[in-house]
What we know:
Blueprint: E1 4-7, H1 9-18, E2 23-28, H2 35-46, E3 50-53, H3 56-63, E4 71-75, H4 84-89, E5 96-101, H5 106-119, E6 123-127, H6 136-142, H7 145-148, E7 151-154, H8 157-166, E8 170-174, E9 180-181, E10 191-196, H9 204-209, E11 212-215, H10 227-243
Amino acid sequence: MSxxxxxxxxxxxxxxxxxxxxxxxxxLDPERRDARMRQFTERVRExxxxxxxxxxxxxxQWAGTSRHQGVLARVQxxxxxxxxxxxxxxxxxxxxxxxxxxxxxPHNLGACLRVADGAGAxxxxxxxxxxxxxxxxxxxxxxxxxxxxxxxxxxxLARALTEMKERDIQxxxxxxxxTQTLYDLDLRGPVALVLGAEGSGLRQLTRKTCDTLVxxxxxxxxxxxxxxxxxxxCLYEALRQRSR
Length: 244
């Protein structure tokens, strides 16, 4: 497999910590000389990874954005993620899964992975169609969570949800027109939280596959939340209930 690009302090540092042998070389902007860059450079040298000074314009071109913080790495792709069955088989306690239906924006996916990692979810799943894959933008926004949170792209999302139901995992979909709210539901047991893209929401088949639908109460003028914000609300409500 061809090397891929990671950029930003968090994304590159997590790869250095979790799979240093996969880091081929790290490029740094020599114009950035602040304390954070000095500390990062020291960490790279301790890891004995090839260090290259490259001008910011070159990093802009490789990253496809100027938001790389002066840090970019060429890395070998990691081994493919386990299957959903493998992930669930390894869970001790009640599984917590985030399913994304139709989320195609890499910034939203990156934020969802970061939230899922923070809330202690065991996996994020999405259909191979109607979804964005892992790329450098996702990794940057995820701030390292793209390296630690299993992101599994399934051929058929409705079938994957059905298979989770056969494992006694409650499948809960978020919908603005649901009669009960998120806070009416017991989320302490095995649960998969299913969110659709902002605007279009859940596809019809996905909606029908859910055991129940809930809504996030909206007390202001706006009608809905960004999908990554909705994911944070749902996942942290599950975490709150499980921590009681």
